[in-house]
Structures are given as structure tokens and as C-alpha cells.
């Protein structure tokens, strides 16, 4: 706790009392989720901005310090695009999925499993944590196959080494948890022949959360959450139960890039994850604000509000 050093004595005491109230509000949540696994999908602007990166890592370390078991799955699309631009390879997308030929897959693996994973692990460790970096290929963690993709036109374009998950083998994650390490996972999977596949990080996070029977899945994104009106940032829907999702999709309240995030949350809920959250990672300490406050800051998607 930072003790105020300016102002009158009364002002300093009032500020300290306010800080104490924050801790008191957090206490029931610390007790409730002690020993629980929390899967965090880390991506978007929170990966690009140095101050936000620091904030996210501080949040992850605090979760671990108070007895929770954070598991991090990271994205990295913008960095993949940057490297492709540098080597003169033009990115192509089909219905939001990156066309991934053999060369693009090699670049993708270099960025995700190499550069970004290593940087994130290093930052966590430098700030006092004990993180271990993993590709989905390590210990057979993420088993995958080429995605069966049908485009909007109804035809089946070849988008290359884009994968869908066939199984998660969480054994290595259990070993790391037993020894109190923080797993940091890049969303690369492999098939039975060892071929690598690029997989959507939200999907990986949901599948990992289900395999670990996590209490929470939290997706950091670049919007406040699910908005009833995309043009009105104050139209946040703070809580959605599972039966509401189909109606919101039909009403086109959930559209565009929010669809796969909500689908990932639903998939996790249907397989035993207690609560899922879509949170604005552009806000400092978004993880703590969502988990440890009564109101939260994003959209939670739950099985039932009852």
C-alpha cells in the first residue's frame, strides 16, 4: 500500500482509509478463489503498450501471490503482420482467419513461440514471478488438425496451416502447477505427424480452461466488453447468461470480432468452467478490477444468473 505523503494529516488518513476499503472489498474474492485456476487470454493493446504490459504482469503476479493459479495464453497477430511486412510477404485473411502457407507458418511460430513467448516469460520472471514458456507442441499440450473451413461464399478456400483443436493434454500444466510455476502458452498446435498449426488464441484459452476445470476464463480485448450499441461505449452489458447468447447473436448485438470471443466463452461454460469474462485490456489493472470488485469492469458470461 502506498501511503500518501502530501496534503494535511486528515487528507492523508482519508486516503489510507480509502485504500483499506479497496483491500476489504477484495478479501471475499481472494478467499473464494484461493487455490483456483484462472486462465487468462492476453492479447490486443495490452501486449503493445509498455505500461499496460507492466500492469497485466503485476496483476498476474498478485493473483499468484494470493493463492490463485494463473495460466496465460497469449496472442500476437500484429507482431506476425509486422514480420511479414519486413520480409515482403503480404498478409491475407479469409473471414478473419490469416491465410497461413508454409512460409507464413514458419514466421508465425518464430513470433509466437519464440519472440513473444520468451519476452513475456522474461518480464514475469524479472518482476519476481516464476514463469515457464510453452508452445502447444510441448509435451503434446495442444493436438490439432487443419481446420475444416467454409468461407462466406460457401466455397472452401485453402487457408493453409490454420488449425482446430482435437485434444488438450494438460499433464505438463499439472506438473507446473504442482511446483508453483506460471505457464505461458503460445497458440501453436501440432498434428500426429508433427505439422504445426496456427490456432486462434481465444479458442486455445477456452480449451485449456475446460481441460483444467478452471474457475474463470478471462479474455483481454480492446473493447469494454459486449456492447448493446457498438457506437456507445456506455452501453456495456455487464452480465449475460448462457441462454441469452443465441438471442443476442440473432439480434446482431454480438457481431464481428466479438463472435469468436463469445463462442469461446460459451464453449468453456458448456464444459465446466464456472465463469467467463470479456474485459477491456486497455484499462490498467483490468484483471484485478474484474476479479476483486463487486461490480467488475467488463462483461461476464455465465451459465445462469440464478
Question: Could you list some keywords that capture this structure?
Answer:
single chain, 306 residues, alpha/beta, Carbamate kinase, eight-stranded mixed sheet, two-stranded antiparallel sheet, 10 helices, 14 strands, 42% helix, globular
> Separation of termini?
36 Å
Biggest sheet details: 8 strands, mixed
Overall morphology: globular
The CATH class is identified as: Alpha Beta
Helix share bin = 40-55%
Count of β-strands: 14
Name the CATH architecture: 3-Layer(aba) Sandwich
When the domains are counted, the total is 1
Q: How would you write the strand order of the largest sheet?
A: 5-8-2-1-11-13-14-12
Radius of gyration: 20 Å
Give the low-confidence spans: none
H/E series: HEHHEHEEHEEEHEEEHEEHHEHE
Tally of helical runs: 10
Task: Indicate the proportion of strand residues.
Answer: 15-25%
Structural class: alpha/beta
**CATH topology description:** Carbamate kinase
Assign the CATH superfamily: Acetylglutamate kinase-like
Structural features, described:
The chain is an alpha/beta fold and 306 residues long. The protein has helices at 9-33, 45-48, 50-65, 77-86, 102-126, 171-178, 201-212, 242-250, 258-270, 286-292; strands at 37-42, 69-74, 93-94, 97-98, 131-135, 142-146, 163-168, 182-186, 188-190, 196-198, 216-221, 239-241, 275-280, 299-302. It is globular. The mean pLDDT is 90.
Structure at a glance:
With 306 residues, this protein is of the alpha/beta class. The protein is 42% helix and 20% strand.
Amino acid at each position: 500500500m502506498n501511503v500518501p505523503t502530501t496534503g494535511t494529516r486528515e487528507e492523508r488518513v482519508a486516503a489510507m482509509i480509502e485504500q483499506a476499503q479497496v483491500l476489504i472489498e477484495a478479501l471475499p474474492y481472494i478467499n473464494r478463489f484461493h487455490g483456483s485456476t484462472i486462465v487468462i487470454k492476453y492479447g490486443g493493446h495490452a501486449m503493445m503498450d509498455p505500461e499496460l504490459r507492466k500492469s497485466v504482469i503485476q496483476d498476474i503476479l498478485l493473483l499468484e501471490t494470493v493463492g490463485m493459479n494463473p495460466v496465460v495464453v497469449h496472442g500476437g497477430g500484429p507482431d506476425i503482420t509486422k514480420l511479414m511486412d519486413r520480409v515482403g510477404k503480404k498478409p491475407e485473411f479469409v473471414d478473419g482467419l490469416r491465410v497461413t502457407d508454409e512460409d507464413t507458418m514458419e514466421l508465425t511460430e518464430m513470433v509466437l513461440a519464440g519472440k513473444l513467448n520468451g519476452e513475456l516469460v522474461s518480464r514475469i520472471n524479472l518482476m519476481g514471478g516464476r514463469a515457464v514458456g510453452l508452445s502447444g507442441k510441448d509435451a503434446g499440450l495442444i493436438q490439432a488438425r487443419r481446420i475444416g473451413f467454409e468461407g462466406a461464399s460457401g466455397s472452401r478456400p485453402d487457408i493453409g496451416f490454420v488449425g482446430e483443436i482435437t485434444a488438450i493434454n494438460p499433464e505438463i500444466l499439472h506438473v507446473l502447477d504442482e511446483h508453483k510455476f506460471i505457464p505461458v502458452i503460445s497458440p501453436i498446435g501440432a498434428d500426429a505427424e508433427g505439422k504445426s498449426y496456427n490456432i486462434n488464441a481465444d479458442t486455445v484459452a477456452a480449451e485449456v480452461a475446460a481441460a483444467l476445470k478452471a474457475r474463470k476464463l478471462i479474455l483481454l480485448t480492446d473493447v469494454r466488453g459486449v456492447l448493446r450499441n457498438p457506437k456507445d461505449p456506455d452501453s456495456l452489458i455487464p452480465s449475460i447468461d448462457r441462454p441469452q447468447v443465441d438471442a443476442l447473436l440473432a439480434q446482431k448485438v454480438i457481431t464481428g470480432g466479438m463472435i469468436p470471443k463469445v463462442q469461446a466463452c460459451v464453449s468453456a461454460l458448456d464444459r465446466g468452467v464456472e465463469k467467463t469474462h470479456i474485459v477491456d485490456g486497455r484499462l490498467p489493472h483490468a484483471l484485478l478490477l474484474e476479479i476483486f470488485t463487486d461490480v467488475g469492469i467488463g462483461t461476464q458470461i455465465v451459465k445462469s444468473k440464478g
